[in-house]
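Now for a specimen:

…
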Amino acid sequence: MILETVSGRKEVPDACRELGINETAFRALRDRVLQSAVEDLEPKMPGRPKKTVSGEQEEIERLKAEVWDLKSHLEAANIREELRLILPGVLISPGESTLEKKRRRRREKREKQRLKMMKQRPDTSGSQGGTPA
């Protein structure tokens, strides 16, 4: 009916009688409808408008991401621990630098050599007739 009055196909008093309102209310309604139509024709960003997120919802999303991250780190730590038990001396902790790796490997090598030397030494306890004191 509003478009009919704008196009001239219908007179405002006739539209008011059909709607059961006075001319002032009709003109206010027509102005709101036309203003809304003009706003809808104005250029806008393509796509759906972004959802407005409350501060509380943002905090919930941040905490969800933090929980997921912590669970991932915990799972990785559990796997590393299991592997460390199965393969001792093979795994390196995630924060170990190249220099620390080299030092650890040297210590492990020295320890193996020391144990090997201990096994190869003859018994010097004197129980089998060593040199008298």
Q: What stands out?
A: The helical segments are 2-7, 12-19, 23-41, 55-86, 98-120. The chain has a mean pLDDT of 81. Residues 55-119 form one domain.
